From TrEMBL:
Protein name, entry field: Ribosomal-protein-alanine N-acetyltransferase
Gene Ontology molecular functions: N-acetyltransferase activity
Keyword Cytoplasm assigned: yes
Superkingdom, natural source: Bacteria
Annotated N-acetyltransferase domain residues: 3-193
Sorted UniProt keywords: Acyltransferase, Cytoplasm, Transferase
Similarity section: Belongs to the acetyltransferase family. RimI subfamily.
Gene3D superfamilies tied to this protein: 3.40.630.30
Name of encoding gene: rimI
Length: 219
């Protein structure tokens, strides 16, 4: 199975919302997504798709911005992984290249803020979340950001480990940030993403991700 990144379109929103409801207790409305993906000056939203064939063999979908997965320090264009069962909710038409994850980023002055990132539970643990994070980092560069910030639940140690690996550091908490259970949010941010140190880390982590995914495919 191949995994690849595309810009989110309005047609993708119903499928994205299915994953969102499986991942979060306070999902966004469809109108919120429409507003966000139309604001290309400040926002970027992406999806990860699974496909049994390489992305280059698929018909190109129209996108609001040119598809540029991993435009900075590009090493990943498509990734081969062991096949997982494709599925879609019965109320939505099946898709031969189902959406298996999504993410978004905002630009505020010169800080890029990761607003959301989630992976279909069926596909978790296979590197899709890390693939999405890399795509959002590239969009942070495209937007001219100097650093990247995010909030993550205090209890979500798995996500925190991924962010720490990519150079995000804890910078405080937002008490009772999550409205469903009043859980605190951990604020994390990177140092300057244009530094040689950050770019070297990013290049090495992408190399490691390629190796990991290739091993999964071979296994």
């Amino acid at each position: 199975m191949y995994y690849f990144i595309e810009a989110m379109t309005e047609d993708d929103i119903p499928y994205v919302q299915v994953i969102e409801r499986q991942s979060f207790t306070t999902p966004w409305s469809a109108n919120t997504y429409r507003r966000e993906i139309r604001d290309l000056q400040h926002c970027r939203y992406v999806i990860a798709r699974a496909s049994p064939t390489p992305p280059g063999q698929l018909p190109r979908r129209p996108t609001p911005t040119p598809p540029r997965p991993f435009g900075v320090l590009s090493q990943l264009v498509s990734i081969f992984l062991p096949e997982s069962p494709a599925h879609a909710p019965s109320s939505l038409p099946p898709d031969p290249t189902p959406i298996v994850g999504y993410g978004g980023i905002w630009l505020t002055v010169d800080d890029a803020h990761i607003t959301t990132i989630a992976v279909d539970p069926t596909y978790r643990g296979q590197g899709v979340g890390e693939l999405l994070l890399n795509a959002l980092i590239d969009h942070a560069y495209d937007l001219g950001a100097h650093q990247i910030t995010l909030e993550v639940r205090i209890s979500n140690t798995g996500a925190q480990r991924l962010y720490l690996k990519y150079g995000f550091q804890p910078g405080g908490t937002r008490p009772r940030y999550y409205t469903d259970n009043s859980e605190d949010a951990l604020i994390m941010w990177t140092e300057g993403i244009n530094t040689a140190e950050f770019k070297a880390r990013l290049a090495e982590l992408r190399r490691q991700l390629v190796v990991r995914l290739q091993r999964q495919a071979d296994g």
